[in-house]
Design brief:
single chain; mainly alpha; 2 domains; 9 helices
Length: 205
Amino acid sequence: MALRSLLERSLPPLREAELRLQELRDRGREMAAVGLVLAAATAPAALFMAHLGIAVGASAVAAFALALRARNRRQTLLSALLRERDAYRIEVVRREGTRFASIDRRRRLGRWLRRIVSFAECEEGLPAYSVVSLDDRVRAQRERLLRIAEALEATDRPVHPASVVLVHQLLTRPPSSPLYNPGLDDELLDFALTKVEAGVDRDSD
């Protein structure tokens, strides 16, 4: 999936998104509970009748699969919401985003940004990450990347969690990041950095 679709995907209205997150969480828990009950019943059912045990076991697997599907769909929606500052009016988004945007993670991301700038300028060897960033794009956005790195590393500067999440996704999702993928329009990087900068010196309110 291209970063354009990640950044510009059509998200449901906030109230609908909040209800959807709750629905998927409840469905996942319900299916997991059903799976556990069925799994526990598999052996007794098999003792009673072999084919019944197989059927109960298959039902348990199906229930666990549905639980996993609900969990993955919830995580996909939550991941998209975590990039959007407006979505932090939703309690679970605010809680997860605040937890994610710890000062330790901010510092790691700041150092990572500095490394890719240094690598693009041939001042440092390959970064720890195995995928190499696009030097021309990094050099073109050098000052902005370093300013963002400085803000992330400064403990006295508030950075909105949505900006931290977006930086993390830019750095850790090469196929969908214009920092790494030459098949994506370089204007996407400008768009993404503008969204990041909008949350610098801004808290989660």
